[in-house]
Amino acid sequence: MSAAIPAPRTSRGWSFPRRLALVPIGLYALVLVALPNLLLIVYSLWGMEEGRLVRSLSLDNYLDILGSRVPRELLLRTILTALGAALLATLVAYPMAWFVVRRLSRARLLVLILVVVPLWISYLVRVYAWKIILGDQGVINTALTGIGVLDEPLGFLLYSRFAVFLTLTYVSIPFVFVAAYAALERIPKPLFEAAADGGASPWRTFTTVVWPLSRQGAAIGFALALLICVGDYLTPALVGGMDGTMFGNLIVSEFGLANDWPRGAALSILMLLSTGLLLALVARITRTEGVLE
Amino acid sequence: MIASTDAVVALDGVTKRYPGQAAPAVDGVDLAIRQGEFFSLLGPSGSGKTSCLRMIAGFERPSEGRVLLDGIDVSGVPPYRRDVNTVFQGYALFPHMTVAENVAYPLRMARRPRPEITARVGEVLGQVEMTGFESRLPHQLSGGQRQRVALARALAGRPRLLLLDEPLGALDLQLRQQMQRVLKHLQEQVGITFVYVTHDQGEALSMSDRLAVMARGRIEQLGTPRDVYYRPATPFVASFIGKTNLLHGSVAAGDAGSSAFRCADLVIPVAGDDPAGPATYSLRYEAVQVAAPPRSGEVRLEADVEEVVFLGESAEIVTRVGGVRIVGRAPGTGSLALGTGDRVPVAFLPADLVRLHEQA
Ligand SMILES: Nc1ncnc2c1ncn2[C@@H]1O[C@H](COP(=O)(O)OP(=O)(O)O)[C@@H](O)[C@H]1O
Ligand SMILES: [Mg+2]
């Protein structure tokens, strides 16, 4: 990357071809981002009466949701589970990426492919694989009972919050890995030597140079993972059972079974807001100044 | 094999082989650098200069031989435990730290008290004339300014030894000459031993107390700039440093203790103690005077001008004498009258002929 020279901007603004290039981006943002969200907000302010949409604006949906225990607790639990899974995925994937960047040269491509390959496999299949691993007749339980460690299979492995947490962590790892790898790979190698030259041990090189220059990448990976986990309703549906229900399932059921779109929209907005707040916090904490060249 | 007790750094039979490379990058180098010295490693690209420096800094380990710092073998000592600092070729400033933070880095790593760090940072930034830039980030500096900050960072911890790898390579000519003076002045002022890597002979000659000329991983010659310039040991050194005529021929003993060097159809008297046999002599361009008034004791020959290369303040005159090509220098103004095909006298003093050792 070159130095942070701002795009040439005259007092009259951007030149015409540049402005033209912004049109598709603007259209995209309008049609696929702004409009649906606007719709969602409007819906969340409407209401339902006896199965029919009432088009009058009010905050009733929100007050109702926040006033009742179940959605509130579910939102909190969903966020905590997602945070935990994204955090654990980061704790696994970031050191892994660091190891690959620093220690591997010939095996690097192989490891990269191994980590990224799961992304090419259908999400459903990946989550389903955990059913096979965690189930009563699954790999873990069969092995443990087979060698006689257990008499009965461990019931809590599947259809539990634990299963949701584990699966979400697994699903998140490749995303965090790719983001962290990209950030770590970009750090110029001479900086490591400059740090050692200045008397920094490998650990202090990490804390003073590597982490500050890659934490934004780690944060992007973490944020991606968080978004995936917070909104996921397939994983809880497949491996969560009753205990493992997440906020996403609630939203799905409002839009689907209950056919209460305004309430579903309000739930969605609440989730968006809380995740947005979290992401802003993460971005705030991991900000680093300076430009890599 | 080296009396290394008074040497700040010594290489003792150091060889470096990189995996997958047929020839060693450094091949049996012996070197002892004294306290307070400005020492240069001079050589063309790929001659092993950087490899030597990296072994001293600790970023590479010698395949054979030892690296001694203050007489102690440091082969197993990691870079961060060596009292050595490096100015890197690309500066390697930390992009997320301000100028002051960059310079403070080695002091912070050494866990110096904060007031001391602040004072020291101010002091070195003053020495490199970068006061006032403390809170800038590296990408907000020009190349020359980054260079100064890199230098300040390397000096901040008062290392025993400063290694510089082509530190001025990325600067334009004018800035480079200015920085050469800054560096030399600074080195005299702080009294730190400098090991300076460069492929620029002018730089090495003007700044060094001593220098080693390297080629293909070996030291061709080690000496003062004057030694190396006026008494080159090998044809490589003679032609790499300055511009020189290499005359190939043979020496035969004459009568009454005199000797003569025969080169094609030329016979030139040389010192009587030059051993007989095949020989190569170096004769610097500027030692050859073209169309100049005679001096006593000089060798004076009639030559045909083949080409005149005008360089501004001087000109190079390519001539042919008795089947031998000899290039001489003339003042730029004096060259105006000369042209291809002219017959002119060329002259040099026998003392300017330097006998070279043939390379193995
Ligand atoms: N890390 C390395 N791996 C393999 N070969 C290298 C490495 N570093 C240098 N070399 C080779 O060693 C030789 C000397 O290189 P170097 O010490 O960088 O020379 P210089 O600094 O004089 O240009 C070159 O042929 C170079 O290609
Ligand atoms: Mg080099």
Overview of this protein structure:
Chain A has 293 residues and is an all-alpha fold. Chain A has a single domain (62-285), classed as Orthogonal Bundle (MetI-like fold), CATH 1.10.3720.10. In chain A, 71% of the residues lie in helices and 2% in strands. Chain A contains twelve helices and two strands. Chain A is globular, with a radius of gyration of 24 Å. The termini of chain A are close together. Mean pLDDT of chain A is 87; it is low at 1-11. In chain B, the strands form four sheets. Chain B has a six-stranded mixed β-sheet with strand order 6-7-8-3-9-10, with helices on both faces. Chain B has a five-stranded antiparallel β-sheet with strand order 13-12-11-14-20. A five-stranded antiparallel β-sheet of chain B has the order 15-19-16-17-18, with no helix packed on it. Chain B contains eight helices and 20 strands. In chain B, 24% of the residues lie in helices and 35% in strands. Classes of the chains: A mainly alpha (293), B alpha+beta (360). Chains A and B meet through α8 and α9 of A and β6 and α2 of B. Adenosine-5'-diphosphate is lined by residues 18, 21, 25, 43, 45-51 of chain B.
What's the short story on this structure?
The complex is a heterodimer of chains A (293) and B (360). Chain A has 293 residues and is mostly helical. Chain A has helices spanning 16-45, 60-67, 69-103, 108-116, 123-134, 139-146, 161-185, 189-197, 202-231, 234-240, 247-255, 261-285; strands at 47-49, 52-54.
Provide keyphrases for this structure.
heterodimer, A: 293 residues, mainly alpha, MetI-like fold, two-stranded antiparallel ribbon, 12 helices, 2 strands, 71% helix, globular, B: 360 residues, alpha+beta, Rossmann fold, OB fold (Dihydrolipoamide Acetyltransferase, E2P), 2 domains, 6-stranded mixed beta sheet, 5-stranded antiparallel beta sheet, 8 helices, 20 strands, binds adenosine-5'-diphosphate, binds magnesium ion
